[in-house]
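new request in #modeling-help
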Amino acid sequence: MHEMGIAASVLEAVGKELTRYPGRRAVKVGLRIGELAGVDAESVRFCFDVIVKDSALAPLELSIEPAAGDELDFAYLELEEEAIPA
Amino acid sequence: MTQVPVEKKILSENQRIAAGLREGLEAAGTLSLNFIGSPGAGKTAFLEKTLSLLPRDARVAVLTGDLQTTNDAVRLARYGFPVRQITTVGACHLDARMVEEHLEGLAAQPLDLLLIENVGNLVCPTSYDLGEDAKVVVLSVCEGEDKPLKYPGIFRKAEVMILSKTDLLPYVPFDAALARRNAREINPAIEIIETSFPTGAGFDQWLGWLASRAARKPAKARAALSERAMAVSEI
């Protein structure tokens, strides 16, 4: 039910994380969602797709790994290779 | 492509604010409880009864969340304690920032007890830490005995389950023993208290739990709440 808020939090967290890698773009974000987290992965995916395409982070792929507990984690970020200086 | 590990909570911003709240409440010696239950489970009535049993000079405050209206705050304010309504305008849960904002200036003195009534919902509020000491889940006998199995998240995280509206047991096909078994299957350590607003049944046990939970807090809250629980049990 609050998956839109979760998706928005993910985008916010990605934006914040990216400030540690100036000049780099994120291509993929990896989440871990536990079955007791009370969050539906498919619904997060739907909400994420809706909001990411209008954000500065687009295109950004989402990967969700299931887990056993109540994890609701931002596990990793995949960055585009650094541009080779001309 | 480079993969960099992040390993943070998705709701880390909420977590950060909740940690700050927890620290502040801990320093003030406040016992804080987050009440979660379906719409109509009887959360407001339960809190009304609790407030009516506490002495007028108890340092207690209430935050109550709903999508719209200040109806609950009006009901809860009748007992003379500071109450604030948090209107979420559509959001299905309270988050730590809302609590932080509404706590500001709520009470002049440090509190012994802060009661937070979440938005009626068994799912979303479970994910949002509000800096509370414990979650309390309210389940009424008008619901299904299998709610703990259907919504395991909240029953797993709650320290107490209030089984409310027990005065209706003769009129509804609710098996209280089965509901208890289901809750314990999810959370063997959960404390279960059966209560009724109109008869007041179970509230002595509830106030006893409050006093013993406060005993795990710093000395200030412990003394205040145990004195008050005793005062109530003598009435």
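bot summary: The longest helix of chain A spans residues 3-18.
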